[in-house]
Amino acid sequence: MIEEGGNKRKTVAEKRQLFIEMRAQNFDVIRLSTYRTACKLRFVQKRCNLHLVDIWNMIEAFRDNGLNTLDHSTEISVSRLETVISSIYYQLNKRLPSTHQISVEQSISLLLNFMIAAYDSEGRGKLTVFSVKAMLATMCGGKMLDKLRYIFSQMSDSNGLMIFSKFDQFLKEVLKLPTAVFEGPSFGYTEHSVRTCFPQQKKIMLNMFLDTMMADPPPQCLVWLPLMHRLAHVENVFHPVECSYCRCESMMGFRYRCQQCHNYQLCQNCFWRGHASGPHSNQHQMKEHSSWKSPAKKLSHAISKSLGCVPSREPPHPVYPEQPEKPLDLAHIVPPRPLTNMNDTMVSHMSSGVPTPTKRFQYSQDMPSSLADEHALIASYVARLQHCARVLESPSRLDEEHRLIARYAARLAAEAGNTTRPPADVSFNFDANKQQRQLIAELENKNREILQEIQRLRLEHEQASQPTPEKAQQNPTLLAELRLLRQRKDELEQRMSALQESRRELMVQLEGLMKLLKEEEQKQAAQATGSPHTSPTHAGSRPMPMPVRSASAGSTPTHGPQDSLSGVGGDVQEAFAQGTRRNLRNDLLVAADSITNTMSSLVKELHSG
């Protein structure tokens, strides 16, 4: 009794180990439910080593364990689920180097207990195939785009249209993950969850599904899913910036910058917990940064953006064809035996578990060396493999196929031990071998022809991509285009040199104007201090509060500004004409802006050309 009680307590401790470790991380102090849920699920993912397994390895594990041949509503036992999980982790250790091996037994125990707690809260000891696929495909590592494509393939029909009932079932299963980490009140399943994702009941194809799921912001019930993937991407991002609250010299992960307070930045731990200091408030708008850019890079990006050199933003995902890809037709490789009914090829089981022959294949023990039955058996097995996507297979059916293979291997071994054969069997075997050799020869010839065709197409492509000078000389259109391009290039170079020369002249004129302005101001100041009553009429008619912008500078006995403005443009002469009230400094700024606009138009024209 004592030993049984100790084992029971040990089992309960193993089931609660993952949740105890998660509570020790103190994620509940994060005030935002989205970040709190994403952090908890990211912890479960890393603790169970699921971040080391991508979606393609998951699909391979599903196929190895026969889950792809089962209906989504089929229930599997906990023992079979443990077999699936074990194959995932053992295959993972084969791919990892010897220095990075994981504890397979511990990972199996943690993940199995988490899945049972999330999907078998009633303790029935069974999970549906769709629950297993949805959970493992969501929690594994890899790109979110690849996961969504696989999930859509499980919810769409043969025409590539999403079935809303299956999408509703997917939401039920995937939203059990936040509930398992005690975030059900924020992201639990409701009857209106499907409408929050797709308000209009219309045909949903793959591209529309990806646009909705990867939008910014995503659907409210799944807002934690892209955040969990972004957490994985920024875990090792370093920001050489000091946190304005905790004063740590650098940050890891996300960085948050206040849009109202000058140079106020918080690390992710302080922002998630709602810390604030000084004039900053939690109500201020914050911008999330997932990378660090130096001031030089920011300046170069701003200049490139102002000049229009920044490329357009790429779409969030590539556009996929609307129609799903058709499966490969392997009929020309392994021709199946014509069958009228798939049930004719099935092998029934007796109570003892030994397979007995059916009405199609009547094997007798007095003909152990006959090859006709073996070839028929192989043909039926190939046909069953080709139709496995349309026939519902059960675990006993899979074991039955393995027994077929074992039986055939045993027959071959028994025939190898028989040294003497009847002449009829020998001739039949010789004919079969001859046919096989002919088939192999035909396939080799076809393979050789295909390789030659590939080589020929490759040579044609290389020749087309690299035209020879002789072909260029024979093509007058190509020569004309080259001539026009050279002429356009020369014209642009000439215009650029002319604009540079004009810019140089304008800069010289601006420098002369600045000198002239300083001289006029000095002379005006000297005249005002030396003889303040020399020009009473002007002083009384033009009172100016600012000495820098005084208009009486033109009445001095020295030479007028028109004498020293020879060769200057009309706009500049007009700016310095007598009697005008324009601001000279503003005119200089306008002239500088015209230079900038001229150079910008030249750069745009060069890029367009």
- Structural class estimated from helices and strands: mainly alpha
The coarse silhouette is flat
What top-tier CATH class of the largest domain fits best? Answer: Mainly Alpha
Unreliable sequence segments? 327-369, 389-394, 533-568
Largest sheet: 3 strands, antiparallel
How far apart lie the N and C ends? 89 Å
Q: Tally the structural domains.
A: 5
DSSP helix count? 23
Mean pLDDT: 76
Number of strands: 9
CATH architecture of the largest domain: Orthogonal Bundle
- What portion of residues is helical? 55-70%
Beta-strand percentage? under 5%
CATH topology of the largest domain: Recoverin, domain 1
User: Considering the protein shown, what is the CATH homologous superfamily of the largest domain?
Assistant: EF-hand
GO cellular component, one term: plasma membrane
Organism: Ictidomys tridecemlineatus
Domain ZZ-type: 238-294
Biased composition (Polar residues): 529-538, 552-565
Question: Could you characterize what this model shows?
Answer:
With about 600 residues, the chain is mainly alpha-helical. The protein has 5 domains: about 1-220, Recoverin, domain 1 (Orthogonal Bundle); about 240-295, Wheat Germ Agglutinin (Isolectin 2), domain 1; about 335-350 and about 370-415, no CATH class; about 435-465; about 475-520 and about 560-609. It contains 23 helices and 9 strands. It has a 3-stranded antiparallel β-sheet. Strands 1-2 form a two-stranded antiparallel ribbon. A two-stranded antiparallel sheet has the order 3-4. Helix 4 (about 80-95) packs antiparallel against helix 5. The longest helix has about 55 residues, at about 475-530. The chain is flat, with a radius of gyration of 40 Å. Mean pLDDT is about 75; it is low at about 325-370, about 390-395 and about 535-570.
